[in-house]
Write a structure and sequence with these properties.
- With 187 residues, the chain is an all-alpha fold.
- The chain has a domain of 100 residues.
- Helix content is 79%, strand content 0%.
- The longest helix is centred in the middle third of the chain and has 44 residues.
- The protein is globular.
- The N and C termini lie far apart (52 Å).
């Protein structure tokens, strides 16, 4: 029972500091896993791979995996709930504050600044993904004409058709199915 309480408490602490996305907590998770002998180094690497392959946030997936590996189903539940509680509480507090102050000039000013910044963050992430998807590795450092010659034409075509389908309001699941079929056909 103490092991399950320790899992819950430790993952709750990790959840408090889980800012910047799932990868930001990898050092905290590794430290806890090694300190408490929950996982070996090899198992930690496996945990990262499994968390990447399963749906949901990486931090939650990693907590579930580590909890299950350490103490079975109860350990998985304890670690998962532990990592989720801080985010849920913080989100609830922020929503209450937002709902209470959403019509104030201050909140409107805050959101006015946040919207384009978040759009920029999303655009930058999309640009990084596009470079990896549409160019062979390392080609973006070449001179401009060489970059143009190195474009993966098939990938650009799939990208363009995807944009068209998104514009035509094709749902996410059919879009992903079409992408899988396109990938199989053009490779």
């Amino acid at each position: 029972m103490m092991g399950i309480l320790l899992l819950f408490a430790r993952f709750m602490v990790i959840g408090i500091f889980c800012y910047g996305g799932g990868y930001a907590i990898l050092p905290l998770l590794q430290e806890a896993a090694m300190k408490h002998h929950w996982l070996t180094k090899a198992e930690f690497v496996d945990m990262i791979a499994l968390a990447q392959m399963t749906p949901g946030p990486i931090a939650v997936n990693m907590a579930t995996y580590a909890g299950f590996k350490t103490a079975g189903v109860l350990g998985a539940i304890a670690a998962t709930v532990g990592i989720l509680i801080p985010g849920a509480v913080i989100t609830y507090i922020l929503v209450v504050c937002f709902m209470r102050f959403r019509e104030t000039r201050f909140m409107k000013s805050v959101l006015y600044g946040l919207r384009p910044t978040v759009t920029g963050l999303i655009a930058f992430a999309a640009l990084k993904i596009a470079v990896v998807s549409l160019f062979p590795e390392g080609s973006v450092s070449l001179p401009f004409l060489e970059v143009l010659r190195s474009i993966e034409v098939k990938a650009v075509l799939i990208f363009a058709v995807s944009l068209l389908l998104i514009y035509k309001k094709v749902g996410t699941v059919p879009l992903l199915i079409c992408a899988v079929i396109a990938g199989i056909l053009v490779m």
